[in-house]
What we know:
Layout: E1 2-4, H1 9-19, E2 28-29, H2 34-44, E3 48-52, H3 69-85, E4 89-93, H4 107-111, E5 114-121, E6 126-134, E7 142-148, E8 151-154, H5 158-162, E9 173-180, E10 183-195, E11 203-206, H6 210-223, E12 231-237, H7 249-261, E13 268-271, E14 273-274, E15 279-281, H8 286-295, E16 300-303, E17 310-311, H9 312-323
Parallel strand pairs: 1-2, 1-3, 3-4, 11-12, 13-16
Antiparallel strand pairs: 5-6, 6-7, 7-8, 9-10, 10-12, 14-15, 15-17
Amino acid sequence: xxxSAEESIDQVGLRAKRLGIEPEGVSLVGEADIDSIxxxxxxxxxxxxxxxxxxxxxxxxxxxTAGTVxxxxxxxxxxxxxxxxxxxxxxxxxxxxxxxxxxxxxxxEHMVDVVLYLEGENSMGLRVLRGLKNRFGPTHGLxxxxxxxxxxxxxxxxxAALLSEWRGSVPGTVVFPSIEGRRPVLVEVQGxxxxxxxxxxxxSVRGVPPARVHQLLAVVQRHAGIALSSNEVYVNVxxxxxxxxxGVDLPVAxxxxxxxxxxxxxxVAAWGEIGLTGEVRxxxxxxxxxxxxxxxxxxxxxxxxxxxxxGLREAIESLFSHSR
Length: 324
């Protein structure tokens, strides 16, 4: 059963018709009162209840408007209690804030069993589905989908899709084989360094933790001799993918160095964690990353091996001497 508090039944019906979804076995309720929704669920006894969205439903006995902290918490609590008592699964669709976080009280995330986050890059039409919390399994899985006129369609080869417009012949770009769940996914890491006329140059980061990039800037300047403190720095992971693993350190450093020297790196994939003393450390799943890079035709790999130390300066110098 789908409880739509944002769109009318006719609107949802038109969407289902356009997507070719058969209505058999699906009950649709246009209701914003949480008690009325749960009463309808008792009448239909569905296996799955979907509420769209939790910020637009309310309980009349609570003296506040829909979307407030009290309403969101109370409505979610009633749905959870109802679902547990009847062995029914429930999905609460929620809004996100401008910062990309889940809107509403943080306690909402603690109340539910699973938190799924759907994000994407509008220019490429790609959507990434990842788990932020899962009481029944791991959260490092990732699903990549493409938005089409017929709805979301699974992308069977995420690496090829994310690198479809990659050009190794321009400065400031490196391929990073990220491990998402159990499979490697190749993503393009871009870096741009530009002169600045202001005392505090701008730093813009998308797709990797900003604090990590700020630390890398200091390490690159101190141990690789590349001055970045007086320049604007931009870092981006193409496709709307967010990378949290430390192996992205080396691709970010190489992309920035490529932009500084205005030298393309060519067909190169890189991974490695960079320490504060300028060493490049090996990261897990080295062989799987190499195999995925080879499958997509990447010609050269820069990565530290277990037990074989690599310095950041040496890695940059050897790579750029080869590129020239």
